[in-house]
Design brief:
Layout (H helix, E strand, L loop, with lengths): L4 E2 L20 E7 L2 E7 L1 H11 L3 H18 L7 E8 L6 E6 L2 E6 L15 H5 L2 E8 L6 E6 L6 H12 L3 E9 L5 E11 L5 H13 L3 H6 L4 H8 L6 E7 L1 E2 L5 H8 L4 H7 L4 E5 L6 E5 H12 L1
Parallel strand pairs: 1-9, 6-12
Antiparallel strand pairs: 2-3, 2-11, 3-10, 4-5, 4-7, 5-6, 7-8, 9-10, 13-14
Helix pairs in contact: 1-2, 9-10
């Protein structure tokens, strides 16, 4: 099995290169190398949007950015615009990390967006923030029930955890790299990742070459910060092999929440809880994915309580 490459970004001041990191649009590029698929994503703008929406600390930005990027990479393997959800459930101070991706869009949130821990060996201590627990991956397939697999966390640093999940739950030899660079001011300077997936009957010679290339390739966020495009990173990973670029498509943040969907969630609450809420003139509900606020008048909540009573 190829070795996972987890990016533990330094907490030291990140210097902007001559490349304007704000100019590159988020994109995911897919390619094949023999019986191996390679996916590389740039998610800088999307992760920056997540950090702004949720007012995340530097550490929470890194953890959430890695997880949502991982979901986008896994979703790239799905057909017919089907989706992927990832839940990191550890006992650390960050709480749960939730990410969803479908058709080039991603969203997510963390339980504690203000989490802070001292650096560990000069890096964000994402593993310390996550702690021990499980990673669950749900694949949403059209016309079928969602399939969810779960595995124990390896180190809480997300990439190793995804790699181990893919091997233990889906028997997929893979290599995952995820990284987020954050400036001292909290801006996302670069974010992205790659996912290398070996197909059945893949030759050992190809896997050995890819494994060697992975070990020699700089961190993905560093490459993106220097201005490398996802296609260039793919060719770097596939050095010495015949690389076939399949396609590229844009990535962006998107949330499909609405007042009607929030109302549907409220309808699942016990009648007594709804009646207690109806004592207030106005009830405000917030979408955990995008922080959008929805207001319900007393009469609306009372109507939900009456329906629950029936």
């Amino acid at each position: 099995m190829m070795e996972a490459k987890e990016v533990k970004e330094t907490n030291e001041t990140t210097k902007r290169t001559k490349h304007d990191f704000r100019s590159g649009k988020d994109i995911l590029t897919r390619a094949t190398v023999g019986d191996v698929r390679i996916y590389v994503a740039r998610t800088t703008r999307l992760v920056r949007r997540l950090s702004v929406n949720h007012h995340t600390s530097h550490l929470a930005t890194a953890a959430l950015g890695r997880t949502v990027t991982g979901a986008l990479l896994l979703a790239a393997t799905m057909k017919n615009k089907e989706g992927v959800g990832i839940k990191i459930a550890g006992d650390g101070p960050i709480g749960q990390i939730i990410a969803e991706a479908q058709d080039g869009t991603g969203r997510g949130y963390v339980g504690n967006p203000d989490v802070f821990l001292p650096p560990k060996d000069g890096h964000f201590d994402v593993g310390g923030a996550v702690g021990n627990g499980t990673i669950s991956v749900t694949r949403y397939t059209e016309g079928m029930r969602p399939f969810t697999g779960t595995a124990a966390l390896v180190d809480g640093e997300i990439a190793d955890d995804l790699t181990q999940y893919l091997w233990s739950s889906e028997q997929t030899p893979s290599s995952v790299a995820l990284g987020v660079l954050v400036t001292p001011e909290g801006d996302v300077q670069a974010a992205g990742g790659w996912f290398i997936q070996a197909l059945p009957n893949c030759g050992d010679d190809i896997l050995e070459t890819l494994d060697r290339n992975v070990r020699q390739t700089p961190y993905v966020s560093s490459l993106l910060d220097m201005g490398f495009e996802p296609e260039q990173i793919i060719r770097m990973l596939g050095k010495g092999l015949s690389v076939k670029i399949l396609d590229s498509y844009p990535l962006q943040f998107a949330c499909n929440c609405s007042k009607e969907k929030i109302e549907g969630v409220l309808q699942t609450l016990p009648k007594k809880e709804l009646q207690a809420m109806a004592e207030d003139e106005v009830t405000e509900a917030t979408c955990p994915y995008c922080n959008a606020h929805y207001t319900f008048r007393r009469s609306e909540i009372q109507s939900l309580a009456d329906k629950a009573e029936k």
